[in-house]
Amino acid sequence: MTDTIYVLNGPNLNLLGTREPDIYGSDTLDDIAGQLEDRARELDLAIDMRQSNHEGHLVDWLHEAQARGAKAVILNAGAFTHSSIAVHDAIKGIRTPVIEVHLSNPHTREDFRHISYVGRAAKGTIAGFGALSYTLALEAAARF
Q: Which residues are known catalytic residues?
């Protein structure tokens, strides 16, 4: 499964397209999945896209990505970015490279969003480009 990229999405990302479109854009998570799948095919990669509002699912999926030999993980942990030591520790505990991704630029928003536990453990971060952030992360992941 080395040619698979896990794309993991945290809380409230199931609401994309309707939740604060002035911040997060009008693309739904299904729209983003379609864009990623199209580009992944061109790169001879597969996408395993998932979303959960539960922190433990993200932790389990990070462990699974390594166990199944995923090439990389693209992770938008949503609000868990700023609060989850468990997600941070899961990233640190695996060898699979993790790329943090955000639709908006957290550094231009509320102060509490300036801290990223995910970013402290991830290989890199791409933020602020809307749905394109995911595609840029896929381009980076393809080079691992």
A: 24, 102
